[in-house]
Q: What sequence folds into this?
RNA sequence: GCCGGCGUAGCUCAGCGGUAGAGCAACCGCCUCGUAAGCGGUAGGCCGCCGGUUCGAAUCCGGCCGCCGGCUCCA
């Protein structure tokens, strides 16, 4: 057989040759240094046979792809170590069964069915065994088996591997990797010897994980690890993790007194403290202004609705398990509202509508309640009661695309104003064959097409994810990552042909006949709680001036400056700024430190000179002394920055 | 909901079978100071809750509640 090298040279190798055979044929440093290969753009190890005529580039430990190889092998080393760990405890080797063990962003994990729970306390011991396996420098061997033989090997002994083999598509090779008697079904690729793995790894935590991600399957124990090429990279990663934890909105929420979750009130229910509520109100005000500019009208509806309403909308039977149960009294039943749309639809339906009224855009900062599973609750980002910056646009089928694009524009404007640059757009479509959706196929197909067209025409790049649609229609979501790298959905825009149908709402067209409107459900923030949670982490608590709960603190140097500090406070306050004068009996240095820790954007120091000249000494939270300015100038400047919603 | 871990003062944490501790914050007093912590004092605890083991439990065991990390779910 022949393969082609990056320089175009063709090399003749024996049938079934591997990258190792190639490295040996090339000789020289390749023989010693090759650890894998890129074959037709795909990462191969030294053990896997090369396809005829392949383009092959050998890689060494210096290439970035090496990381993938050793992380994958580390997963196997972990599995072997766990097996040894339990053997030391007196269990037979086959008492430890294995699920999958892939490479992930910073390392790897392995799903393990062990005879005893693995706890965090066991990790150092398991790590030590892993290091020993690295020191033993074990060679890895790869081989393939026919499907029948592979199945026979595990039949009746290991249901996980049997299931995994059955999942391998017909025609694909079924390969195994083995080191020192430890064999695992695996597609590869791996490093050729465990001694090549850099010892810069760490097992981080254990978690439960259902086999194949299906809650009907048994739960295995997933051991997570991180691994890098150098000690520095590992150290950096762990340091960054610590830094990220300082941005955690749950921590900052407490430190900056923004919000509270009190078990006595109930889990997943947010108590907004005065400082946090300032931010919340500013965000709402911002959104209200932007929506008014774009032709929205505000409405207000109650927190509950009759069960009949939700039976008509379809919420009740379809999502009963994620709602608080109905409240029944006398012969009526009510539901805490999980969504605002049915109420808005009834506002639409309250009178005969003309095509001339459309698009009708009804907006509400509506608070909804959903019964989220307890294990899923998370600070502000997953709660049981939250306020949506919700609106429903009722329009003609012809208006859908333009309206949809206008909402994309609004959402991008909001993100831009707040400096949120790191997000992705995701279109959620219906999963074929699922019964959790309402409405007919033609409408779904049309809506899915309209969303994609609108997104493309707005120059948005997006991914399409099947099965991510709402039960009544497909949607476009804006997704961001929090400080610790978890993804959260913020803004959402959904096209809905179904609820208008279920509520039988109409408008009178130019032809005098009734027509069915289309609804667009949309919320640029998504949930104000979640959005603010993300925003806290995005700004690390250092909010831009217009959002900062306290915009400026005045620090008098000595007690004799208190009257002037008061005057400065009054001047800023009169301009509508949120300002506090610090008249405590403390040293100026201590006061500055306090306001810095509270992440107040502006500190104004006043002493003899300032009082005399009518100036203030300006200092911002990035520890910069900006100089001395006339009071009136500072007031005007701060006011302009607030009004312009500047990011600084 | 499931698996694992953790609950000690408002916060961060020590103590881990034998009389509940520190720093910060709070409160009181002294100090009046030029850009990140002045000094002294006072108060603050059903050691998450319930039960068990023990002469004796913050400490050991069990259940519950809450939180944390994942998994599943997610309008």
A:
């Amino acid at each position: 057989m022949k393969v082609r090298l990056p320089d175009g040279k063709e090399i003749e190798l024996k049938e079934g040759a591997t990258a190792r055979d190639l490295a040996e044929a090339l000789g020289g440093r390749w023989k010693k240094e090759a650890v894998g290969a890129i074959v037709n753009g795909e990462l191969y190890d030294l053990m896997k046979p090369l396809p005829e005529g392949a383009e092959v580039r050998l890689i060494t430990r210096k290439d970035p792809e090496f990381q993938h190889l050793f992380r994958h092998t580390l997963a196997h080393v972990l599995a072997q170590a766990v097996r040894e760990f339990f053997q030391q405890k007196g269990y037979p080797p086959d008492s430890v069964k294995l699920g999958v063990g892939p490479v992930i962003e910073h390392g790897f994990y392995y799903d393990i069915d062990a005879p005893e729970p693995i706890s965090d306390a066991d990790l150092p011991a398991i790590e030590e065994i892993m290091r020993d396996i690295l020191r033993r420098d074990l060679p890895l061997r790869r081989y393939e088996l026919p499907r029948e033989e592979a199945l026979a090997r595990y039949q009746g002994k290991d249901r996980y591997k049997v299931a995994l083999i059955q999942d391998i598509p017909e025609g694909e090779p079924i390969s195994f990797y083995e080191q020192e008697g430890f064999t695992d079904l695996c597609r590869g690729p791996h490093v050729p010897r465990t001694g090549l793995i850099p010892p810069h790894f760490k097992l981080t935590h254990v978690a439960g994980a259902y086999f194949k991600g299906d809650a009907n399957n048994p739960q295995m124990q997933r051991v997570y690890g991180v691994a890098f090429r150098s000690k520095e990279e590992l150290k950096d990663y762990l340091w960054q993790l610590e830094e990220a934890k300082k941005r955690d909105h749950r921590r900052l929420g407490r430190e900056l007194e923004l919000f509270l979750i009190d078990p006595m009130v109930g889990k997943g229910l947010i108590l907004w403290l005065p400082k946090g509520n300032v931010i919340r109100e500013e965000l709402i005000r911002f959104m209200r202004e932007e929506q008014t500019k774009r032709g929205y009208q505000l409405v207000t509806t109650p927190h509950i609705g009759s069960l009949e309403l939700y039976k008509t909308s379809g919420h009740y039977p379809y999502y009963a398990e994620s709602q608080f149960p109905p409240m029944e009294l006398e012969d009526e039943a009510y539901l805490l509202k999980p969504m605002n749309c049915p109420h808005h639809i009834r506002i639409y339906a309250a009178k005969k509508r003309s095509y001339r009224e459309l698009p009708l855009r009804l907006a509400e900062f509506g608070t909804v309640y959903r019964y989220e599973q307890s294990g899923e609750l998370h600070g502000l980002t997953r709660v049981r009661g939250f306020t949506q910056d919700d609106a429903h646009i009722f329009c003609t089928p012809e208006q859908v695309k333009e309206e949809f694009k206008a909402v994309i524009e609004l959402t991008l404007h909001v993100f831009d104003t707040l400096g949120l640059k790191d997000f992705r757009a995701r279109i959620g479509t219906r999963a074929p064959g699922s019964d959790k959706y309402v409405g007919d196929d033609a409408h779904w197909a049309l809506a899915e097409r309209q969303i994609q067209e609108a997104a493309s025409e707005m120059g948005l790049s997006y991914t399409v994810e099947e099965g991510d649609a709402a039960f009544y229609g497909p949607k476009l979501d804006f997704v961001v990552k929090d400080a610790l790298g978890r993804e959260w959905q913020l803004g959402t825009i959904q096209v809905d042909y179904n609820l208008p149908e279920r509520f039988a709402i109409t408008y009178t067209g130019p032809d005098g006949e009734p027509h069915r409107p289309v609804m667009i459900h949309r919320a640029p923030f998504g949930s104000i709680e979640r959005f603010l949670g993300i925003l806290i982490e995005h700004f690390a608590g250092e909010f831009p001036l217009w959002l900062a709960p306290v915009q400026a603190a005045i620090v008098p140097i000595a007690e004799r400056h208190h009257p002037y500090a008061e005057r400065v406070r009054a001047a800023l306050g009169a301009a509508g700024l949120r300002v506090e004068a610090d008249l405590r009996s403390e040293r100026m240095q201590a006061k500055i430190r306090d306001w810095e820790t509270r992440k107040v954007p502006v500190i104004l120091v006043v002493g003899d000179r300032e009082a005399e000249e009518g100036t203030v000494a300006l200092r911002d939270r990035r520890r910069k002394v900006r100089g001395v300015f006339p009071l009136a100038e500072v007031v005007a400047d701060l006011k302009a920055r607030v009004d312009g919603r500047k990011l600084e």
Summary: Chain A has a mean pLDDT of 93. The first helix of chain A runs from residue 19 to 26. The two ends of chain A are 64 Å apart (CA to CA).
